Amino acid sequence: MDILDLTIKQLHEGFKKKQFTSVDVTKAYLDNIKKSDGKIGAYLAVTEKLALGQAEKADKIISSGKDFPLLCGVPCAIKDNILVEGQQATAASKILENYVAPYDATIIKKLKEQGAVILGKTNLDEFAMGASTENSALKETRNPHDTTRVPGGSSGGSAAAVAAKEACYALGTDTGGSIRQPASFCGVVGLKPTYGAVSRYGLIAFASSLDQAGPLAKTVEDAKIVFDAISGKDPLDATSVEPKILNLKFEIKNLKIGVPKEYFGKGIDKDVEKIIKDAIEKAKTAGAKIVPISLPSTDYALACYYIIAPSEASANLARYDGIKYGLSKPADALLDVYLKSRGVGFGAEVKRRIMIGTYALSSGYYDAYYKKAQEVRELIRQDFKKAFDKVDVIFGPVSPFPAFKIGEKGSDPLSMYLADIYTVSANLAGVPALSIPAGGIPSGSGKLPIGLQIIGNYFEENKVLSIAGEMEKMLQLI
Amino acid sequence: MISKDEVKHIAKLARLELTEKEVEKMQKDLSAILDYFDILKKAPKIQIKTGKAGKNVLRKDEAVERPASLANNLVAQAPDKKDGYVKVKAIL
């Protein structure tokens, strides 16, 4: 038995039976990080002292003989745009390179209350803007399945950490696919919850009407455990809600699965299409009713997203002014402090998005861009509403292609944006969506993982997770 | 194609200092991205009912006790500070 292969529940059982302690498990993960992270580059910071302290505390709780929470003593990794008090929170940006989080994000508070062990902070595209983690201003992260390829993004470090056994699970954030797409590329499970299901307090804001935090994990069961731990209403995030808990049993044989024709259009890699269609066939064999559906506004989703997300980003990132915190470039006049600090502090993609957003919101262009995008967003919401009148969940690909080569899409921002084509709609509509490994495409000596996307109706994470759990068994990849 | 002057104007609104090279690249990239947005012209027109987008969620207007360390932690992050205050340049 390799300790690093154990799931959350297996670790929990092991702690209970005194097979090993949290300190043992934490040290095993820290050792593996030392051994393999030079090659992978998942972590921006390893918080060894914090982790060992938390592990010792967890062991005290465990050895007290009382019941203890599932995440107690289990080591995890945190995306570096989520605040952990006293630790760096860089968002992989030069402008926050020396920033130390003054408080805990609500989701971190919730993990700490369970006795979680935090191993470190993981790499991402700067301010979570990107689909490959190449936009990190601080580090390059490589895909554990093929180190010449990207891990996906923007939660690339979190996905790579779980895939490379450098963490039992990780937290990421998803604004347009940033949990699901790296989960797909790295062969792990990733859940973007319903907008409002998880508090955003203490997340470094990118696009506030789209951002959601969620788990990246080895299995569907683990993803559910973490989701249950971090979800719920938070007085510090007015958009968070207490979800109605549906403790119903869902079985795939009683369900209708919608397959949108627009998710298999031009541009999808033939091998990806085959893996996803094979997975749908398996669901059919298990007794699910497969229903062809249409999400007619899919063609507009990407343009809609790349207006709304940068518009919100241009407002959210106005806070980086060289005065309150972060990088500051001295100048005589206040305006020059702003201009210089931001000019030097932000990377190319972040500047591009601030520019797009500022343009779309500027006088004379607002109606043609931002207002139009809001209308299209409503169309996308209606598409899902109509679809979920007919079906329980929607199946489709996460990404049109497997992990691509590092540098392959570097110079052309639009070609990188296309990586988000099947993921942005769930954020625009606010519905939950999950990626589970569905197969692999042979490449070199290994295989490049491909994720199946399961999209559910609002606050039906339990249904999505139940179905994903059954699919996981059928796909037999674990 | 948007002009270089437009790029510079937007950069000024966005409080971003761009080098001449960045302006050139931005002109090319923004033009391509804005062209891509043209696809939205084909989307069906709908009326969004304004003011019905959601409901207001308000908290009670009362002081919430927070640890004193929080204020110290926050001020500690400021690049320029004095006696527990953040120092800001004169505006006028």
Outline the structure in words.
- The complex is a heterodimer of chains A (478) and B (92).
- Chain A is of the alpha/beta class and 478 residues long.
- Chain A contains 15 helices and eleven strands.
- Chain A has an eleven-stranded mixed sheet with strand order 1-3-2-4-6-5-10-11-9-7-8, with helices on both faces.
- In chain A, α8 links the parallel β7 and β8.
- The two termini of chain A are 15 Å apart.
- The model of chain A has no long low-confidence stretch (mean pLDDT 96).
- Chain B has 92 residues and is mainly alpha-helical.
- Helix content of chain B is 40%, strand content 4%.
- Chain B has a two-stranded antiparallel ribbon with strand order 1-2.
- In chain B, a hairpin with a 2-residue loop joins β1 and β2.
- The mean pLDDT of chain B is 90.
- Chains A and B meet through α9, α10, α11, α12 and α13 of A and α1, α2 and α3 of B.
List keywords for this structure.
heterodimer; A: 478 residues; alpha/beta; eleven-stranded mixed beta sheet; 15 helices; 14% strand; B: 92 residues; mainly alpha; two-stranded antiparallel ribbon; 3 helices; 2 strands; 4% strand; flat
